[in-house]
Automatic annotation (TrEMBL):
Keywords: 4Fe-4S, Iron, Iron-sulfur, Isoprene biosynthesis, Metal-binding, Oxidoreductase. This is 4-hydroxy-3-methylbut-2-en-1-yl diphosphate synthase (flavodoxin). It comes from Hujiaoplasma nucleasis. Pathway: Isoprenoid biosynthesis; isopentenyl diphosphate biosynthesis via DXP pathway; isopentenyl diphosphate from 1-deoxy-D-xylulose 5-phosphate: step 5/6. The lineage of its organism: Bacteria, Bacillati, Mycoplasmatota, Mollicutes, Candidatus Izemoplasmatales. The gene is ispG. Converts 2C-methyl-D-erythritol 2,4-cyclodiphosphate (ME-2,4cPP) into 1-hydroxy-2-methyl-2-(E)-butenyl 4-diphosphate. [4Fe-4S] cluster binds at C264, C267, C299, E306. Pfam families: GcpE, GcpE_C.
Amino acid sequence: MYTRDITKAVQVGNICIGGSSNVIIQSMTNTKTRDIEATVNQIHKLENAGCQIVRVAVLTFADAEAIREIKKHINIPIVADIHFDYKLALKSIASGADKIRINPGNIGSDENVKAVVDACKEKKIPIRIGINSGSIEKHILEHYKKPTPEAMVASAKYHVELLEKYNFYDIIISLKASNVLTTIEANRLAAQTFPYPLHLGITEAGTDFSGTISSSIGLGILLSQGIGSTIRVSLTAEPEKEIHVAKEILANLNLYKKPKLVSCPTCGRIQYNMIPIVQEIELFLQTIQKDITVAIMGCVVNGPGEAKEANIAVAGGKDEALLFIDGVKQKKIKQENLVQVLKQVILDY
């Protein structure tokens, strides 16, 4: 099996996907790409959240041309997402796209495929083949009867071979379905088949609630088995929310360093208003670039034990909490001062 550490390394701008590289976090804008100001503003939000590669939809030549100006104002590689029209791919490449997402079997003749391959070779940019269970080629569905994991891998082979025919090997592959188990099995089969890095995602995963759960299960299982070099958490939500979920998934698998928040589920023993405090500190930690653990506990039953494992911790009392730093008791803090004190302690740590 081609686990992520032994897949081919593929360069996307200044980011390497595959090989010994870290798992890369991606997202996609939902603006009209030709609206340069709106697209740049959204990419800046994604950058600030921790996005490492961004994809934009290219539906028109105006979208493709806009990539040239967008690149002047952003700091991460940009991927042009194209369907069916090879001329849009050529225009996007000329405009400076760092990667093309296109399926070569969907753009017409061999001459069209070769034109895109030659342009990518000249600019040294890769191609991502994106297999979606809802759009598998008719001739493959006729054989497999329905979009099974095997059918998805067969579809990927069809497109990969079209690129390899022209000696093009800077390839990244994604196999996505809205069904979590189908996605898992398709990517397991792909990891046994292709030496190329895999881009993981659950397509049409859902809202920031249901989509987070689906993506955490599907991506978490695959990543824990060494499969997947880059991920996109697809949510029906603001794109930056995808980044927060992706970072949390990776952090729980020790594949990303970020602040960790530990908090109890609360029970009848609690004697201070803990939940709003936890919510505010969670948002605050998203702005912090430190590898620390913060524990917010409701009472003295489990609080001191968690405090010993955390860099910063509080254990609740009646309308107050006891502060610990590196497991050592510091002082009692009144509930109304707790958020402010915790934020300052986190900044100073």
